[in-house]
TrEMBL record, chains A, B:
Coiled coil: none annotated. Its cofactor is Mg(2+). This is fructokinase. It catalyses: D-fructose + ATP = D-fructose 6-phosphate + ADP + H(+). It is an enzyme of class 2 (transferase). The keyword Cell membrane does not apply. It holds the Pfam family ROK. It comes from the Bacteria. Keywords: Magnesium, Metal-binding, Zinc. Its EC number is 2.7.1.4. The keyword Repeat does not apply. One of its GO terms (molecular function) is metal ion binding.
Length: 306, 306
């Protein structure tokens, strides 16, 4: 058994298991101060350890930016998040301090979700795909040849530059770093800032959903041009809204202008841009997947299989 | 020995060798009709075969879009290029027809250059980097964990969407597919279309170089956000112009706004955005690298080394 911990910007989700078929019920609590949240995480890990004596590892899929390189001295440290009291917090150190004998694997929340989709969801059998979540923030993981891309730190696709037409959308954007980057224009809070209402209270035919779909299409186009994923899997409350998905497919098709051979038929967009398959378990299953992959037992099995 | 063939949009470059230290002098001829160019390629391959009896393979790094998946029935076929008479041409078939006993490896020109830089140039030791060329067209290769990313077909970063301020740049762009995509706004021909003169005849302090540098900075920002390369290596006459590189570094720094921790110091941009190191041999060395990597002999050596 492995423990999965998804540390999201608004809530923490935990479960134990080895995959979707034996996953325990999800345990959720809000992401509050690091102190309160840490205490809740540690308490829940202790419960799993009491219930399952064979816990082999803990996987953490966390919001970022976060240092995910195990060789880096700051491994586990959260960097320039707008959640100010979380800056400098080290989730790996916390777990190591309380559970020194259990291996801890770490990646970003979106890379975790990408691993979950690769193992058990919409990324199975693909060389290259992206996982995009659009909710309170916008994040994306890029999965290439069997693992998430880390590179300089990890991708931050929410902060991509996109085109805004001030005549159509006078909202200047609300990213504290970049103003009208993608996240500043298309995240959940931007919808409330524009309309005065939270997205869940707006009618499905509100114009703002077309605007958000058009902005997300620009993300999908630039991803397709820069990294050529075979599929883009979507998560998050805003991203999953059917009106947003439908519009982003149509706008992607219009923008790409027949240039990408594999996407020349509008129908091909149904598969290219689609909801992630693990639903609300994607993040925590990804965290479990991280722990499974990091386990020496798993590596031994994989080597035998080769 | 291996033969490298770089098939570019304006010229073909060929050489033989196993790497930069034993590469023969470069042979160049213009890219004309497929018939004339094919004949010249075949003639040159025959010369190498006569000179070096131990030719183990041919590597081709070609302009695209081109089918680079060896398992695809259209492997080697050039797709929607603006060079109309090249559409449907199959470079692999040509070589197989004339030299049935020699293995042929194929990738795009930019992926080839990325392989060359990974083996012998500015990509050595990096997990993730990008190679960008800006000249007649704009292309980019993305190299992740030991190989170029292919995905859906291969990246086409020249056709990324970027921001144009019509007040500053009224030029509507000249991409036949997308108008003012990056290639439509920042390739060599766009400079001539705006100024009436070819770039090489313009003074170094012409405003157009600042404009091009700013557009390329947007490419680099979006690459950094989507794929987080550890380095971006630049090629091509426009891309390599010192005024363009300097401006694109400064604009990248301004746009990212301190968000990317590894690039918080302006000096870090010197290493992050830098000229490719193999110069005018990058393409053909990449083609040689492709053949070397595809060779069963090389694979045997690599396995022994493990």
């Amino acid at each position: 058994m492995f423990i999965g911990i998804e540390v999201g910007g608004t809530k923490v989700v935990m479960a134990a298991g080895t995959g979707p078929n034996d996953l325990t019920e999800l345990v959720r609590f809000p992401t509050e101060t690091p102190e309160a949240t840490s205490a809740a995480i540690v308490r829940q890990v202790k419960q799993y350890l009491a219930l399952y004596p064979t816990i082999r590892g803990i996987g953490v899929a966390s919001f970022g930016p976060i240092q995910v390189d195990p060789a880096h001295p700051e491994f586990g440290v959260i960097y320039e998040t707008p959640k100010l009291h979380w800056r400098g917090f080290n989730i790996v150190q916390l777990l190591k301090a309380h559970f020194p004998d259990i291996p801890v694997a770490l990646d970003t929340d979106v890379n975790g979700a990408a691993i979950g989709e690769a193992e058990w969801g919409g990324g199975r059998g693909l060389d290259t795909f992206a996982y995009v979540t659009v909710g309170t923030g916008i994040g994306a993981g890029l999965y290439v040849n069997g693992k998430p891309v880390h590179g300089l730190l990890h991708p931050e696709a929410g902060h991509m530059l996109i085109r805004r037409e001030p005549g159509r959308d006078p909202f200047p954007g609300m990213c504290p770093f970049h103003g009208d980057c993608l996240e500043g224009l298309a995240s959940g809070p931007s919808i409330e800032a524009r309309t005065g209402q939270r997205g869940e209270h707006l009618p499905d035919d509100h114009d703002v959903w077309l605007l958000i779909g058009d902005y997300l299409a620009q993300l999908y186009v630039n991803m397709a041009m820069i990294a050529a994923p075979q599929r883009i899997l979507i998560g998050g409350g805003v991203g999953l809204k059917p009106e947003v998905i439908a519009r982003s497919r149509a706008e992607f098709f219009r923008l790409v202008g027949g240039y990408l051979r594999a996407l020349k038929q509008p129908e091909s967009l149904q598969a290219f841009i689609q909801p992630a398959q693990l639903g609300d378990r994607a993040g925590v299953l990804g965290a479990v997947g991280l722990a499974v992959r990091a386990s020496p037992l798993t590596k031994a099995t994989q080597l035998e299989a080769q």
